[in-house]
Amino acid sequence: IEGEPTPTANSWYGQYIGAFSAAKSQGATDEQAHAAARAFADQGRPADGSQQVEDLKKRGIETPINKGGARFKARNYFWHNEVMYNFNKIIDPKTLEIVAGAHLRRYRPNTSGTIFDDANNLDEQAGNQDLRIRDISVIEVGAYAQFTKRLFADRWKIVAAARIDKNQNFEARFTPRISNVITLGEKRNHNFRLSYQTGFRNPTMLDQYQNLTVGGVVTLIGALPEFRERYFGNSPIIDFASTLATPQNPNPTPRQIELGNFRPEFVQTTEIGYKGIWFKNLFIDTYFYYNWYDNYNGSNLVVAPLAPRAENQAKVFQVPTNPDVNLRSMGWGLGLEYRFSKGYNLTTNVSRDVLANPSSEFDRTGFIPAFNSPGYRTNVALSNRNLFKGFGFNLVWRWQDSFRWQSGGFFSGDIPAYHSVDLNFNYKLKSLKSILKIGGSNIFNQRYFQAYGNPRLGSTYYISITFDEILN
Question: Which of 101, 206, 377, 415, by CA, is between 20 and 30 Å from 129?
Fold first, then answer.
């Protein structure tokens, strides 16, 4: 940033380390060396709380990030058009239910080069904010049809559906699915479901067109061929992790990798589940699923040592990639609810979600799956909506397992397990047909964070009034 004082953030650490080492070599204690190093490195540094610091802070906020500041510009637009038709006026739903539809979407980013590769030559003085060098608008189209058939007095329900979608930068995807629900029991209170589904995920606009250097260290680029040609050229591409020395491997051998064409993610899923009521008061809901992924969307952190380096761009890149192995994930869940007398409800559930592939499958290529899901989640709730004379309460305890958070060029680290307690009291205002609630989330202020690098979350307390016209 123009006008930044000496020392700069990048030079201060080198000056401090050099002065600290020099003082230690002359027999100074750690405390003495630290004081001497700070005195040397802090020369020319603005004093805390000074006007100069405030001016630098303001300048950093107002300067775009692609020019060395911290400001993002975003005037993005998104259009979504959808049409749907139910054929129940043409075909009797008792014979066959048919629903069909289509959509058209257009994404139009405008970040002046601060996030996407859409730098423009806008004339600030003329106030022209849309004089663009590069238009990276993306259009997506899709269509679907769904067929529902009910058999044996509604005890067997079959739903078949299919859709086709096309993003202008990627090939079209066809994704069919079919599900069965079988209802048993004299009172129809036992439901079994079995399904096979396919789905896809188009790369996000960031995956396609991002162009952002983080901290002057890592440049996040899009996955389209133009970015790889621009930034890598004929340079060999090295897995960044293979260049890092460790106590076990102080002299690592860089490993060259190949980056294939980036494609939309495709998944096949099978699920089996049961939902039912037992003994009139016990409700059970359970499921198990297994996923097979093709072209799972993740990323690689790579080094391109021979790539040309532009201003504010590093030679370490985070690149969206697909792994050369097929990912698999699976999970299950169990939910129980028991209704006691006098309006008390006890509810609990537990779920498990895991990536079935061993981490060793990704070590060879340095692929970062960023699955980012805790192994276990559970909660227990006790409630009574009408404990006495319109008063009620809801008490919930939640717990989440620890897991490894991965985010390529931003942050990766461990998310500790945490638990919290939510509590609220409610009162029915019958004359106003409303419900008054007073309560809090995480009432004991057990601070936790859900993503690495995010701020810790604490307590939230609230008062609310909800109007309910059909309150009884």
Answer: 206
Report how far residue 403's alpha carbon sits from residue 376's, in angstroms, rounded to the nearest whole number.
9
Buried/exposed code over 187-212 (b: 16+ C-beta within 10 A; e: otherwise): eeebbebebebbebebbebbbbbbbb
Whether the pTM exceeds 0.85: the reply is no
Q: How confident is the model at residue 164 (pLDDT cuts 50, 70, 90)?
A: very high
Could you give the angle at the alpha carbon of 373 between the alpha carbons of 241 and 333, nearest 5°?
150
Cis omega (within 30 of 0) on the bond before 323? Answer: no
Contact residues for 95 (Cβ-Cβ < 8 A; gap 6+): none
pLDDT-based confidence at residue 56 (cuts at 50, 70, 90): confident
Quickly tell me which residue has 């890149």 as its tokens: 317
Query: Each residue of 142-161: pLDDT tens digit?
Result: 999 999 999 999 999 999 99
Distances (CA, A) of 429 to 211, 391, 406, 465: 55, 10, 48, 9
Phi, psi dihedrals of residue 87, rounded to the nearest 5°? -85, 20
Query: Mean pLDDT across the chain, nearest whole number?
Result: 87
Question: Residue 213 and residue 205: Cα distance in Å, rounded?
Answer: 17
Residue 47 to residue 469: CA distance in whole angstroms: 61
* DSSP states along 1-25: -TTPPSSPHHHHHHHHHHHHHHHHH
3-state secondary structure (DSSP) of residue 206: helix
What's 127's DSSP letter? T
Structure tokens at 68: 């060395």
Confidence of residue 140 (pLDDT cuts 50, 70, 90): very high
What is the pLDDT, as a whole number, of residue 306?
67
Residue 127 has pLDDT above 50, yes or no: no
Please give the C-alpha separations between residue 246 and each of 242, 243, 252, in angstroms, as whole numbers.
10, 10, 8
pLDDT computed for residue 408 by the predictor: 59
What per-residue confidence (pLDDT) applies to 91? 93
Residue count of the chain, please give it.
Answer: 472
β-bridge pairing 138-151 and 77-86: unpaired
Instruction: Give the integer Cα–Cα distance in Å for 27 and 29.
Output: 7
Residue 318: strand pairing partners = 220, 301
What's the distance, Cα to Cα, between the start and end of the chain in Å? 64
